Amino acid sequence: MLVKNSRCALLPTKTPDLRTHYNGSDCEFFGKQYDSELIAEDICFDGTPDTKERQWLRDHDFSFAEFELTKPLLINLIDQNIPFALVTTSGFSSHMQAVIGYNLPHGSMYIMDPSSPAMQEMLIDETIEKESFLGARCMAFVPKENSHTLDFIDTTCRHIFPIQDQYQLARQVQDADKMTSVFEQMKTIAPDHRLTQIMERDLACFFNDTKLIQSANDKLLAIAPNETVLLNSQYFCIRDLGDRKGALKWLSDYLDKNHNLDLTETLFNEICDTSENPKLVEKLLLRLKTIGCRSASVYYSIGNYYWAIQEFLKAKEYYFISHCMSETNAVYVENYFKMANILGESESALSWLQRRVEKYQERSASPAISLYHAYCIINQKAKGIEVLQNALTMHPKDSDLVSTLAFALADVGEIEALQALIESKKTSYPNV
Question: What domain of life (predicted)?
C-alpha cells in the first residue's frame, strides 16, 4: 500500500474527487463503500460543523482521533498507512483536505484538496506556524475493528477535543448551563491550554460580554498576533466600548502595514455609508474590487455600499453575484430578494428562493427561514409560516428554525400553536 523510501512516503488514492474528508474514496481506502454525494448531503450545508463530522463517523462504525498537527505524528500516521484530515484557515473561512504523504527533503506533506483533481504539496512547519490560533486541527479515522492503530496518538488535544465536542453540541441548542459546566470541566483538565482560552472567548461571545471578549482576545493575540478573527473582534470591542474613532485609527494603522482582505472589508463596511472619510472609502472600494474578486462577502459589501447611495441596479447585481458564489449563505440571498423587491422583481426572486428550499431542504432549515423572511416582506406571512412548519418536520431540533417559528406564531396571534410548539420542544431545549 505505502510507497516509501527513507525520507518520502505516499499513500495510494483511487480517485482525486475529494468533496469531504469522509468521502467515498477515503472510506474505500479502508474497504468501506460510501457515496461522496450522499455524505455531503448528510453533513454539509454552508460548511461542515465539527459535530456533524464526528457524528457521521460514529454512526458508520469508525473510530477516530482528533489532534493538532506535528511532524512526528504526520510521519507516524502515514508510515502506518493511515491518511488523515487537516483543517486550515484563511480569515473567517476554514478548509479541509486529506493528508496522504510526506516529503521530508522538501519539508512538505502531500495533500488531496476538494478544489483540485491533482495532488499538491503543503509546507509542514509553515502550516503549523500559520495555524497557531486553532492549531491545525487534524482527524484520523479507521474502522472500529482497527481502533487500536490510533492508540499511539496520546496528546493533550486528543483528550480535550471530546470535551470541546460536548461544548459545541450544547452551543447548538443554546444550553448555557451545559456550556458553562463543560467550560469549567475544561479549565480543570487543561487550564492554560489554548483551546480552553478559545472556549472561554466563545462563552464570552455567547453572553455578549464585550470586556471579557476583549480580555480573551488579548490572551490569544499574544499567541497569534495576526489572526484575522481576533483582530476583527478586537476592533469591534474597542468600538463598542465607546471609542469608535480610536478603533478606526487602530484598524487603519494595522492595514497600512499589513495586507488583509477581510479586515479591509471590515473597515470599508464601517465607513462606506458615512461621510466621515470619503477619500478612504474610494480607496478601499478600489482595493476590494481589485483584490476581492474571488470573495462572495466582498461582492456583498459592495452591494451594501451601492444600496446606501441608492444605486439599486448595481446593488442587486452585486448581491446576486455574492449569492451565486455562496448560495448557502442566507444573508446574501435575503438581501438579493430585498433589492429585487424594491425594483419590482419580487416574483422571479421568490421563485429563486423556492427552488433553493427544494434543493437544500434535507440538509438545512436555513433556506426555509430565508423564504419565510421573503414572504414577510411581501405581506404573505401565513405562507411563510407554512414553509417553516414543513421544514420543522425534517429539522425538529434546529434551534434557529424553532425560534423563528415561535416568534412568527406569536406575531400573528397563534397562541395555541405557539404553546403546542413550546411543549413539544421542552425536552430538547431545557431553557425554554
Answer: Bacteria
Contact of 143 with 81, CB cutoff 8 Å? no
Whole-Å CA distances, 77 to 5, 100, 250: 15, 9, 44
Instruction: For residue 316, count CB atoms less than 10 angstroms from its CB and return exposed for 0-12, middle for 13-18, buried for 19 or more.
Output: buried
Distance CA 383, CA 376 (A): 9
* pLDDT tens digits, one per residue of 14-40: 433 333 444 444 555 555 545 555 555
Q: Tens digits of per-residue pLDDT, 245-286?
A: 999 999 999 999 999 999 999 999 999 999 889 999 999 999
Instruction: Establish if 361 belongs to a structural domain.
Output: yes
Torsion-angle region of residue 107: left (phi > 0), alpha (psi -120 to 50) or beta? left
Q: Return the CATH number at 92.
A: 3.90.70.10
Report the largest interatomic distance among the alpha carbons of the chain, rounded to a whole angstrom.
73
Instruction: Single out the residue in 154, 182, 212 at which a domain terminates.
Output: 154
Give per-residue pLDDT as tens, 369-408: 999 999 999 999 999 999 999 999 999 989 899 999 999 9
Phi-psi region of 2 (alpha: psi -120 to 50; beta: other; left: phi over 0): beta
> CATH no. for residue 383?
1.25.40.10
- Which residues form the domain of 91? 3-154
Q: Structural domain tally of the chain?
A: 2
